[in-house]
Design goal:
Helix content is 46%, strand content 15%. It is α/β, with parallel strands linked by helices. Helix 1 crosses helix 2. The longest helix has 28 residues, at 25-52. Bound molecules: Palmitoyl-CoA and [(2R)-2-oxidanyl-3-phosphonooxy-propyl] (Z)-octadec-9-enoate. The site of Palmitoyl-CoA (PKZ) has 36 residues, from helix 2, helix 3, strand 3, helix 6 and helix 7. Converts 1-acyl-sn-glycerol-3-phosphate (lysophosphatidic acid or LPA) into 1,2-diacyl-sn-glycerol-3-phosphate (phosphatidic acid or PA) by incorporating an acyl moiety at the sn-2 position of the glycerol backbone. One of its GO terms (molecular function) is 1-acylglycerol-3-phosphate O-acyltransferase activity. One of its GO terms (biological process) is phospholipid biosynthetic process. This is 1-acyl-sn-glycerol-3-phosphate acyltransferase.
Length: 273
């Protein structure tokens, strides 16, 4: 039997792909990241018609959450959550969390409270099907290049939180940061909480460095701990108190992050359970 050129190419690809995947850490990294994004874009195709039935509505966030929850199993990432009790607050609140990578989506979906929407950069709205799904789920988009516009969107969000009983999730570092620490915090999340007079609940995701590193193109299986810290109240605070509030919350998060980073399996809390 004679093979055509196309068939030969297919055979070579089928043999080369798994070999490259196993031999090259970088190739594996690129494949896993490409599949991550591609799979989310594909899931969004399914989510869009389901969400469209309700129109733009924060309840649609549950649909996205449900559809994304299995991804941690595909990637062999074990997520341990601590501090669930700190989410036992009926009133709206602002969640602030560290932002290492787009993989944060996994930790976020693991604990996302009901009626909670993230604040995202406007560019995400144009990320094809994922952008449309986010819009339908009520994600709040801000233009980071236009501070005044971003502030007015967030001021409107403070009103919506109270009127419509909505919680908001903000990444106060304002960008992804995989440096092993926390960047200085932007102030928006804290102005938002003070304006609405609602608590700030800090969430810290442990460093991914054992299983994921963009610089080294490393992406293996691993474990991540997500800690929900006690809420910080803002009743009676004014905008003058925002810098101190932001510093205090960052201090709490940095302490938790450093503590979690120093924990290793078998040593202290967070080891093997
Ligand atoms: C199945 C299918 C699935 C599909 C798929 C699903 C995915 C479903 C999940 C998506 C998940 C997305 C996750 C995305 C994650 C990101 O996109 S992260 C990037 C976007 N997020 C952020 O930027 C964080 C929020 N940013 C901020 O809060 C920033 O403060 C702002 C509002 C953008 C302003 O930025 P800035 O000008 O660079 O920073 P900043 O120094 O903080 O502010 C300047 C001044 O304005 C003041 N200010 C700031 N905010 C305010 C305010 N609200 N009121 C009054 N004054 C204010 C500050 O106090 C400061 O004044 P001074 O203190 O210097 O006097
Ligand atoms: C037809 C257009 C096709 C567009 C293809 C875009 C591919 C994107 C595919 C899937 C989107 C996955 C949604 C992941 C959400 C995580 C968001 C995220 O991590 O955004 C980064 C942002 O926080 C900070 O941005 P920078 O670190 O400042 O940068």
């Amino acid at each position: 039997m004679e093979l055509s050129v196309a068939q030969w190419l297919l055979v070579v690809c089928l043999v080369a792909f798994p070999l490259l995947y196993e031999w090259s850490v970088s190739f594996k990294y690129f494949c896993k990241m490409a599949f991550y994004n591609g799979w989310i874009l594909t899931l969004a195709i399914l989510a869009i018609p389901i969400c469209a039935v309700r129109g733009r509505n924060v309840e649609n966030m549950k649909v996205l959450q449900f559809m994304l929850l299995h991804i941690k199993y595909l990637y062999g990432i074990k997520i341990e959550v601590r501090g669930w009790e700190n989410f036992n607050i009926k009133e709206p609140y602002v969640v602030v969390s560290n932002h290492q990578s787009s993989l944060d989506l996994l930790g976020m979906m693991e604990i996302l409270p009901s009626r909670c929407v993230p604040i995202a950069k406007r560019e995400l709205m144009y990320a094809g099907t994922a952008g449309l799904a986010c819009w339908l789920a009520g994600v709040i988009f801000i233009n980071r290049k236009k501070t005044d516009d971003a502030i007015s969107v967030m001021t409107e969000a403070a009103e919506t939180m109270l009127k419509e009983d909505v919680r908001v999730w903000v990444f106060p570092e304002g960008t992804r940061n995989h440096s092993g620490s926390l960047l200085p915090f932007k102030r928006g999340a804290f102005h938002l909480a003070v304006k609405a007079q609602v608590p700030v609940i800090p969430v810290v995701m442990s460093s991914y460095k054992d299983f994921y590193c963009k610089k080294e193109r490393k992406f293996t299986t691993g474990k991540c701990t997500v800690r929900i810290l006690p809420g910080v109240h803002t009743k009676g605070l004014s905008s003058d108190d925002v810098p101190e509030l932001a510093d205090r919350v960052r201090g709490m998060m940095l302490e938790a992050f450093s503590q979690m980073s120093s924990e290793r399996p078998g040593k202290g809390p967070g080891g093997v359970h």
